[in-house]
Amino acid sequence: MATQEELQEIANQEIEDAKPLFKVVDNVRMELSDDDYAQLKLDRGAAKWDAQQNGYKEARQQAYGSIAEQLDMQYWDSVNGTTTWKDHIAQVKADNPKP
Amino acid sequence: MAGSLIKIQETTVSSATANVDLTGIDDTYDVYMVKLYNVVPSTDGASLYCRVLESGTANTAAKYDWADVYMRTNSSFANEAQENNTQWNWQPTLGSASNESGQGIVYLFNFSNASEYSMFTKEMTYIRADSSSLTGGQGGGVFTDATNCNGVSIFMSSGNIASGTFVLYGLKITS
User: Fold this and answer.
1) What are the backbone dihedrals phi and psi of residue A70, each rounded to the nearest 5 degrees, phi first?
2) Could you tell me which residues come within 8 angstroms of residue A69 by beta carbon, excluding any fewer than 6 positions away?
């Protein structure tokens, strides 16, 4: 697991490697200013940190079955004595672990 | 009551661009609107972010709140909300594959009113990168600082904006 400082270093290098970068202000294209580059590095570092720390939440949301599907699993589990729903939830959590 | 959209700025991105800044918001109109369409990130799965501009400079303070609901073809809906972030997230996890792009309308309120928080409502639709499924998103946000904002700065969480068109309108109402 990378530290925030390590991710910031990676982000800084990515921006340096990607130069020159451009912005469009009111349809006028220009290279980023030094301040823009500095902010972009901070933003990129923060995004990487957020993805590492919180990305599992979004991944789990995507992986869980719909409410209807989960209710159907629970119904048939109650009828058949199976653990389909519990297994589904456990699998999603295992596939997308917390950092 | 009738009205019309008055175009203030339009930018079409056709080569990689880190930021698209649209300015021209003042007290001429009560409400402004941003139309964005065919927006594609250079990095698959990047999210489309936005900040307010104050005298043309993006405010990066941790004063951006939003609350959205996302309806998805491949999964159940999702509520997403954040407080005190450093930008708004208009389109999370936007896809960049062929035929994947983002479209949307955002209404901007109180941007030129230095006595009120700047707020927006949004209606988006796009193809997600992780599932290649359609997402419809609706919600709103607030910049919790009563300042005079003259525009918006639109950018990606990672990488550039590869392509897209961004238009700023004023909503002129006549009665």
Assistant:
1) -70, -40
2) none
Measured CA to CA, the distance from residue A73 to residue B28 in angstroms comes to: 56
The beta-carbon neighbor of B157 closest among A36, A47, A62 is: A47
Q: Are the Cβ atoms of B86 and A32 closer than 8 angstroms?
A: no
Q: How does A72-93 read in b/e, with b if 16+ C-beta sit within 10 Å? A: ebeeebeeeeeeebeebbeebe
| Token duo for residue A79 | 């009828």
Q: Which two tokens stand for residue B33?
A: 């609107």
Beta strand segments in B92-160, E:
102-109, 118-127, 134-143, 151-156
d(CA B107, CA A72): 40
Separation in Å, CA of B126 to nearest CA in chain A: 15
A62 touches chain B (CB under 8 A): yes
Predicted structure pTM score: 0.90
A3–chain B nearest CA distance, Å: 19
In chain B, the residue whose alpha carbon lies closest to the alpha carbon of A70 is B76
User: Locate tokens 């653990």: which residue?
Assistant: A83
State ipTM.
0.87
Closest CA to B47 of A54, A98, A87, A3: A54
Of A26, A47, A63, the CB nearest to B21: A26
Counting every residue written for chain B, the total comes to 175
Per-residue pLDDT tens for B63-97? 999 999 999 888 778 888 999 999 999 999 999 99
- Which residue is associated with the tokens 């250079």? B42
User: B77 vs chain A: nearest CA distance in angstroms?
Assistant: 8
